[in-house]
Amino acid sequence: MPETDVLFYCDADGSAPVLEWLDELRRKDRRAFKKCEAAIELLAMRGYELRRPLADLLENGIYELRARVGRVNYRILYFFHGRNIAVLAHGLTKERAIPPTDLNQAIERKRQFEANPDKHTYRE
User: Fold this and answer.
1) What is the mean pLDDT of residues 33-46?
2) Which CATH number fits the domain that encloses residue 71?
């Protein structure tokens, strides 16, 4: 499978929620940040072929990218756009199940991105 382009979802105000979450994680827990960064790199290399335990389909086309440090679980919710584009939509720290509010946020971001990909693609 060809490499997958990994994009960051961007809100209408220009902010990228997953980038902001990763920046905060880098400041708080460098080891967790490195694990999440490695997971994103694997997503870029494997795309749709990435499976459990590193990734899993949740619902409505939303997947979770998984990283763990000790007993803390880190998740990046993402979706695919076309064959070779993965869009990182939401980052969170979880204990058990992903809270419905976080999942719904990712679903809404997917809907917004699909309606206007140019407007919701983060560019530096």
Assistant:
1) 97
2) 3.30.2310
